[in-house]
């Protein structure tokens, strides 16, 4: 059985998978809390870790056509949200390469003395 490494990039306010508690991202990557997912409120993040992406599919959303991929937890395989690959409209292109996480499927945790860092920014 191989070892699986999960990433944890720190942060004072971190987001975890509600089901298996794996680290997903931290608040510095939060772009907007103003989204709606299939289970209720959702949040847009610039970077999310420890997830895998499903195949790209064409979707028609309220804000126009997009190519998006489902986003699953790497550990427990819960469908957590989706990833924006491409947006048709210029005004929506800020979402490209960003990930939506459903609030009901994640858990926010505040940690003391944990500085976030940005390994790839
Ligand atoms: Zn999980």
TrEMBL record:
The keyword Metal-binding applies. Residues 13-110 form the Yippee domain. Residues 84-111 form a coiled coil. The keyword Glycoprotein does not apply. It holds the Pfam family Yippee-Mis18. Transmembrane segments: none annotated. It comes from the Eukaryota. Belongs to the yippee family. This is Protein yippee-like.
